[in-house]
Write a structure and sequence with these properties.
single chain, alpha+beta, Lambda Exonuclease, Chain A, five-stranded mixed beta sheet, two-stranded antiparallel sheet, 16 helices, 11 strands, 16% strand, globular
Amino acid sequence: MSNHSSLVGGSSAERFINCIGAAALGRSVPGSGTSPAALRGSALHYVMEELLKPDATIQPRDLIGDVVELDEKDAEGNAVKVELTEDLVLMTIKPAFDWFEQVLKPDEYWLEEKVEFKGAIAGAFGTADVLYIKGDTAGVVDWKFGENIMVSAEDNSQLRFYLAAAMQSEWFYDLTMGEGIRTLDAYIVQPAREYRTRKAEEAMSNIASHARYSYEELCHFHADLIFAKKLKDRGDRTLTCGKWCQFCPAKPVCPAWSQRGSEAIASLKKVPVESSIFKSGPKKGQVKVVTPAVQSKATLALEADDTIRKHYMEAVALTSWCEAIKKYVTERFSTGAPISGLKRVIHRESRSWIDEDQARNWARRRGLKSVDYNTKLKLISVSQMENLLGKGVIKEALVKKTPGGTTIVSDNDPRPSVDDVTSSASTNLSNILTKES
């Protein structure tokens, strides 16, 4: 399969158009390697290509137990291998194959077809999983083998990219526009999720998300790519938050997201809260001094549903950003490039009872009543027992200690660092944003 375009490809097209500075900022982020899910996806794309070749005689069920060897290498330098388990074949590969053979049933099709632009954005290319012709229709099929995120064919820049680029090829243009086909169909086929959440017959009818794009829409999309390229060439490094940030490697270090987060937090602290909104407190007319956290809750309780809905959607977006930051920092430490001011330490060990009945008998002998050391469901925790009786009282024979993993904390934390390396200063992002690519 072809490599990704260094300018813009299908998966990065929406980000390229909407966030001009993303590419420059992305170069500041160390690569974290290819995820297991992405490697599995690569293997399954290869399998689908082999299954759908016109001269192929093998059927999906014949693949159970086979191993696909990829070009990528693991940490030891060995080729990455993906086993085609029974679950993977029957829940992912076979449904996608059956949909293609029984539902789409194209007259002609081209597999793993490289499509590329010419002229102003020459060098921009991608690889379409399937281009096809069927009667008086034509289009593109894209396989998605992930289960966690549903992808829609509607308003999908990746599919627009493949179709618009395909139109640059004279042979495909002649087979479509030349034959009077003015709209093109686009399918996202994502079998695994459907087959885990629905009955088989139901899943087959919902396995593919469908959209239709007119030739005019594709021309407008092509023009958007050209305009974005011109802005980039002029040195524009504008950063913009949006749905296109989902898989952006620079999201954790993006100043636009940092500003968005700061503004969201600040907005929840602006509204003063009076005592009348509480069930108890100072006398009416007096102002009760409360913490920003309480202010936030009280303010939300008084706001209209549409405002709360906006806050909720913003919270979802910011949660994704926060998780991206945590993942980025963890990967920096794991690759020996720590963040200045942070360190990696052993997480505090967890403690639990070896035998709850023995612990109950011990607590009873210490003078506690059953209501003191039992909740409705179980014995109270070791820490809660310490709060009742004091530290150093509990017999060591009653408690088991489970070592914690590592966690990343501020460098003023008293726990010793597990790393011997010295934290280096973070990348100067302002230089990256202003320098030419």
